[in-house]
Amino acid sequence: MPRVDWNRLYHQQNIQIFGVNVPQMDLMTDSKGGKNFRAIKLKFSLLDFEIDAVPVRLPVMPVNMTPYLFRDGTLYYKGEALGFENTEISIIEWPRDENPWHLKGYTLPFEGTRNPLRELRLNPNISGYCPGKCSFCHRLYSHRMHPDKKRILSANDLFNRISEMNGPEIFKKVEQVVLITELFGKEDRFLQCVSAIRQELFQRGYPLERVFDCSAQDVRSSSGHKSLVKLVTPKRYCFTLEFFRDRQQLMGHYKGLPLDKVYKILESARNAGFMEIQLNYLAGIDDLDECAKGFQLLASLGLIDSVGLSSFTFFSEEQISCRHKTAWKPSYYLNVVEILKSFNIRVYNPESYDMRNPYSILMDKANDSN
Ligand code: SF4
Questions:
Q1: Domain 96-368 has CATH 3.20.20.70
Q2: pTM
Q3: Which pLDDT does position 152 carry in this prediction?
Q4: Ligand 1, atom 2, residue with closest C-alpha
């Protein structure tokens, strides 16, 4: 096991909290929803590891709001160049919010890394009218810009597009497929979409024994769970819990369900035969006590097996206030990992989601401190 560089780890987490200044980039884009920060992806290639984690998406911040600067291929912290052993740091440009690239209906989140086909992520529902009204939403291009026309790509159109842009062999080569899209607001429409995508995957040569996962907040009824369990591999129910506090206020009525309703939904998923219940959790919004109490109760009810963990990163001025006042230090995020560990809750696939890096390494640190 390669030696962990704790200094690098600190900065990998801290830069997600503060963002980075990049001198040659303009800072803001204006949209109907307000002022958004430009974004880049920052890639930490750890040469001791065989694969790269997903590059971290970060806001480009004014110089007086972040201690980090990326210039001419070097990352600086408070004016000092940072150098980490066996690590290459580079940026990948993230298209501006108004770029049609965002509306193509899929991403290859590992593109630009040494393992570009680790995941194909599908997001065919790009309407800008998501019934989730999340104040922290990162889909600024749709959620805040409200494209003039609603668009839900058919599975066939979406797969033709992926094939045209990446070659038809991509479906045989890609390691896992995940559906993470805007909410549909209707369980049956979501399930139809999942079923149509599964069918297309099969026809285009994706081996269905590989992962086909989806973020399934829309599936809430017992009959819906019974249908979904037959469509996904493995039998994992992924529900976007996000956090415990002020749910309705921060996510709106449809997504920010009260916790007692969430428990009933998870119980129904369990009864339908899902072997794993994975709750997606956004660290940085809850106070740590609330986080600990919330997970303790879920664990005691047997309604959680794993957590898809990411760190909250703001991409607009108004989102800055979503972060809890105690969550401005990297140690907060290590505490979240320790809380999960204390209730035997696994962290799912920690290299795989935007902003989730470097949770796998934080988990090692939590192990180390025992
Ligand atoms: S549910 Fe997802 S896409 Fe919809 S507003 Fe919330 S974060 Fe954005």
A1: yes
A2: 0.90
A3: 78
A4: 182
